[in-house]
UniProtKB/TrEMBL annotation:
InterPro entries the UniProt entry points to: ARM-like, ARM-type_fold, CLASP_N_dom, TOG
SMART domains, per database record: TOG
UniProt protein name: TOG domain-containing protein
Gene Ontology biological-process entries: microtubule cytoskeleton organization
Domain of life: Eukaryota
Entry GO CC: cytoplasmic microtubule
Bilayer-crossing regions: none
Annotated source species: Salix dunnii
Length: 648
């Protein structure tokens, strides 16, 4: 059907509508004609600032333009010799610089070379200043402030070669003069600011050179006066400058003792570090944490400040509560690491060979051979495990081997447990609960190889014993189920995937009713990942059940459990809840004629209104998806009829 911008031809059924259509169409055509005439007038209209067209201008004239005198620089004249190419600057390291042959005579021309307008001469003069600083510092000292001002001026130059050469010159000056530079009026302050700015820019080779210069400052100068110089830059407007200043402060504080910190002001130092803990850039925050750790170690190093509580009380008295809490978190983590490294009271004594070595005898320990590397553990699948040759004799030593302190032996014993479970289950049955407790203990071990081997052992135990593993008295199965849910929720992929396989083996080998009673508490676990894994396991168990099994467990309890998961944080838990609802709905409405009505009545009588609405929406979406093929076929038939009607 043809359509215009105002009406559809199929909508015109009455004379009045036809009249409106003709009127609007005529108005539209008139407006188009009016716009066309305006465009033609605008094309013929003279421009306001255009010169009037005269007969003389219609004739073509050639006007000779006055030849301007061009500057000699950059002229491409074949009668003149070509200009020399721009010279490349070599960045000479300090080790490759050599002394000046006649320093007494060349020191007089150094300032003139630094004041030159040719940047290449300035670079050469800066390299000469580096030679004087390294080998003839006494001659350079009288003109040091003038040289520093030239170095600052060269750092501001946009030419990168000149900028980098000046930064290298500042490094050699710091190495040669050290704290003597602080006697200048404003030259050192300007130089420090320029170094922080250059270390914060995007040009990598300039930035790296400025970082090296700042590290030279830290090594060649005493910390106390430099901290006073760096303190204002902690609150600089540029976040990169704040980060570079924080790194320098951290490096200085790591060199200081408690006496020097107290001389600077321990409270001021802590406040400065606390302000940087909430900075925008991670480099500044990391430098602030390093500063806090250095202050904490110096503060608690003396005998009168041994306790952690005294450090916390000092922070609370010197800082606002939020900053004091941040400082307490950092030092608490450091304190826990120190306590973890302390020897345990009931630890076994060291052998005599180890005691003779001593703590600092590096020469003796260096001569010893390196310790052997950890062996590689092979993860054997259940299909590749073979029966034990003499199971009756080996079953007696199995528990002792599982209690071994050597994790490699424990891995081997767990593989033997898998062999007993697959081929000699009657021999393993009397000690099954003990074996399950050892499996739980191995899963808690941070060594991933031992953890994965224990998970594989649990899978084989579930396959063989099934519901018999639920009869443990010491809650062995409950502990094992919790560890599997935790391991399936962690970030180590190969451990997580193995735990998922173990949970699937549990679902396949056990009856759903008993397993649902065990999984029910984990639907409200504090960890969202554990809730999601529990929801997936419940969904797999419910898919195996019929309406009788659901009624035996409690259909209302099952629906309420699914309704709680529908509003969960993770999408995996919500998807598992929708699968549970679908399984319950299909089992509940299998013999009902009015499916949706009976399901709605059941949900409204068993759940709060919000949960009941969510359940009804989920099942309604399922019915809509089932009805989509019929609806699409009906729409296709209607489109065919409309096409035939339009052709007629």
């Amino acid at each position: 059907m043809r359509k215009c911008s105002f009406f559809s031809l199929s909508e015109i059924n009455k004379p009045c509508q036809l009249f409106k259509f003709i009127r609007s169409l005529s108005l539209f055509l008139c407006s188009i004609d009016k716009k066309r005439k305006e465009v033609e007038k605008m094309a013929l209209r003279p421009i306001d600032n255009a010169l009037p067209i005269t007969p003389e201008r219609l004739k073509k004239k050639v006007v000779s333009a006055p030849i301007q005198k061009q500057s000699e620089f950059g002229v491409n004249d074949e009668n003149k010799a070509p200009l020399p190419p721009s010279s490349t600057i070599d960045y000479v390291s300090s080790e490759d610089l050599k002394p000046v042959s006649d320093p007494a005579s060349e020191i007089q021309g150094l300032i003139e070379g630094l004041d030159s307008k040719d940047w290449t001469e300035v670079c050469e003069s800066l390299n000469n200043a580096r030679r004087f600083a390294l080998y003839h510092s006494s001659l350079l000292l009288p003109v040091l402030e003038k040289v520093m001002s030239v170095v600052v001026k060269a750092m501001k130059n946009p030419r990168s070669a000149l900028c980098k050469t000046s930064i290298m010159a500042s490094s050699d000056i710091f190495n040669a003069f050290g704290d003597q530079l602080l006697d200048s009026t404003d030259a050192f302050d300007n130089l420090l600011l320029q170094l922080l700015l250059k270390a914060s820019q995007d040009k990598k080779f300039v930035c790296e050179e400025a970082d090296r210069a700042l590290n030279v400052i830290v090594k060649s100068m005493t910390p106390l006066p430099l901290l006073n110089k760096l303190k204002p830059y902690v609150s600089h407007a540029n976040p990169r400058v704040r980060a570079k200043a924080a790194i320098c402060i951290s490096n200085f504080v790591s060199k200081m003792g408690l006496e020097e910190m107290s001389e600077f002001g321990l409270v001021s130092l802590v406040q400065m570090a606390a302000a940087l803990l909430n900075d925008r850039l991670p480099e500044a925050r990391e430098a602030a944490r390093s500063t806090v750790i250095s202050i904490y170690e110096a503060y608690t190093g003396s005998e009168e400040h041994k306790q952690l509580e005294e450090w916390h009380s000092f922070c609370q008295s010197s800082l606002p509560p939020i900053f004091a809490q941040s400082m307490a978190k950092i030092t608490a983590m450091l304190w826990s690491k120190e306590m973890a490294l302390k020897p345990i009271d009931n630890a076994l004594p060291l052998p005599q060979e180890t005691a003779k070595l001593g703590a600092n005898e590096e020469s003796k320990t260096a001569s010893l051979p390196p310790p052997p590397a950890d062996p590689i553990i092979d993860y054997i699948s259940s299909e590749n495990l073979e029966p034990i040759s003499d199971p009756e004799s080996e079953i007696h030593g199995l528990v002792e081997e599982l209690d071994s302190k050597d994790w490699i032996k424990v891995c081997e014993s767990l593989n033997n447990v898998r062999r007993f479970a697959l081929y000699h289950s009657l021999l393993l049955m009397p000690i099954l609960e003990k074996v399950m407790l050892v499996v739980v203990k191995a899963m808690k071990n941070p060594r991933s190889a031992l953890c994965k081997t224990s998970i594989m052992a649990s899978s084989d135990i579930f396959k063989v014993f099934g519901d018999q593993s639920l009869d443990s008295t010491n809650n062995a199965f409950d502990s094992l189920l919790l560890q599997l849910l935790l391991k399936a929720s962690q970030d180590k992929r190969f451990v997580c995937e193995e735990a998922d396989r173990a949970l699937n083996a549990m679902v396949k080998s056990m009856t759903p009713l008993s397993l649902l009673n065990k999984l029910r508490p984990y639907v409200r676990h504090s960890s969202p990942r554990v809730r999601a894994k529990a929801g997936l396991t419940i969904s797999n168990s419910v898919s195996k059940m019929g309406l009788e099994g659901m009624n035996e467990f409690g259909l209302v309890s099952l629906v309420q459990m699914a309704a709680d998961l529908l509003n969960d944080r993770l999408p995996e838990a919500r998807e598992a809840a929708r699968n549970i609802v679908t399984c319950i709905y299909e089992a509940y409405t299998r013999n009902e004629e009015q499916k949706q009505e009976s399901w709605q009545n059941f949900c409204q009588s068993s759940l709060p209104p919000i949960h009941a609405q969510s359940m009804n929406m989920g099942t309604a979406d399922g019915e809509e998806q089932q009805a989509m093929p019929e609806i699409s076929g009906l729409i296709g038939r209607c489109n065919f009829l409309v096409t035939v009607d339009s052709d007629i």
